[in-house]
User: Which sequence fits this backbone?
C-alpha cells in the first residue's frame, strides 16, 4: 500500500470531526447505505463531511486494511473508526453517541 | 454477468462456521438476493465490542462478499443466553 495514500487518509480523518467515506457525494449519494448514513447525520444536526471513494479502488482497499472493515460507508468520529449506522444506530439509542459527539465537538480540530 | 444469488440458509451456514451456536435470521430486503438484513444471536459475542461483533459477522461471510454473491448486509448482533 502506498504510504502517501495512508498519509492522505490520516489527514482527512483528522480534518473532520465526523467523516464518512462512502459511495457518491452528499448531494448525489450512489448507494442506499451511503444515503442512509447521510440522513442519519443530517438528523443529528452536527456538521459532517462525505468523501466519495466509489471510483478509487486503491483508496478503498487502503481504508479496508486500516479499519479491518470490508464495506462502505465507513464513519470516523473524532479520528476514531465507528463502523457504520449498524453500530451508530444502537449507540444513538443508548445515548452513547450524543456524549461522543458532544466531546468531539468540544475539542478544537 | 450477474453472479449467482445467495440464500438465507447459505448465509446462516457461513455464519455458523464461525459461530456454531448462532441463531441467524437473514432477510432479503432488495428483492435481488444480494442485499440482506442479517440478525445474529450468539454467545460468542459476550464481552466483545459491537464493532468487533460486526467484524466477526463480516469475516464469516467474507467469501460471499468477495465473490459478489452478497453485495451488502445490514447487521444486527445480540448476545445469546
Assistant:
Amino acid at each position: 500500500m502506498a504510504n502517501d495514500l495512508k498519509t492522505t487518509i490520516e489527514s482527512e480523518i483528522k480534518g473532520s470531526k465526523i467523516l464518512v467515506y462512502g459511495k457518491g457525494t452528499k448531494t448525489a449519494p450512489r448507494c442506499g447505505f451511503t444515503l442512509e448514513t447521510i440522513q442519519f447525520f443530517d438528523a443529528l444536526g452536527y456538521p459532517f463531511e462525505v468523501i466519495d471513494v466509489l471510483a478509487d479502488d486503491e483508496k478503498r482497499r487502503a481504508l479496508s486494511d486500516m479499519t479491518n472493515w470490508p464495506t462502505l460507508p465507513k464513519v470516523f468520529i473524532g479520528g476514531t473508526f465507528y463502523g457504520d449506522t449498524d453500530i451508530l444506530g444502537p449507540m444513538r439509542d443508548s445515548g452513547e453517541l450524543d456524549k461522543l459527539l458532544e466531546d468531539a465537538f468540544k475539542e478544537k480540530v | 454477468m450477474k453472479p449467482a444469488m445467495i440464500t438465507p440458509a447459505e448465509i446462516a451456514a457461513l455464519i455458523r462456521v464461525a459461530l456454531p451456536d448462532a441463531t441467524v435470521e437473514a432477510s432479503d430486503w432488495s428483492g435481488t438476493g444480494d442485499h440482506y438484513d442479517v440478525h445474529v444471536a450468539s454467545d460468542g459475542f459476550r464481552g466483545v465490542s459491537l464493532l468487533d461483533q460486526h467484524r466477526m459477522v463480516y469475516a464469516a461471510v467474507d467469501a460471499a462478499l468477495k465473490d459478489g454473491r452478497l453485495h451488502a448486509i445490514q447487521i444486527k448482533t445480540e448476545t445469546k443466553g
Residues 2 and 40 of chain B are 27 Å apart (CA to CA). The longest strand of chain B covers residues 35-42. Chain B touches chain A through 13 residues (CB under 8 Å). Chain B has one domain: 8-79.
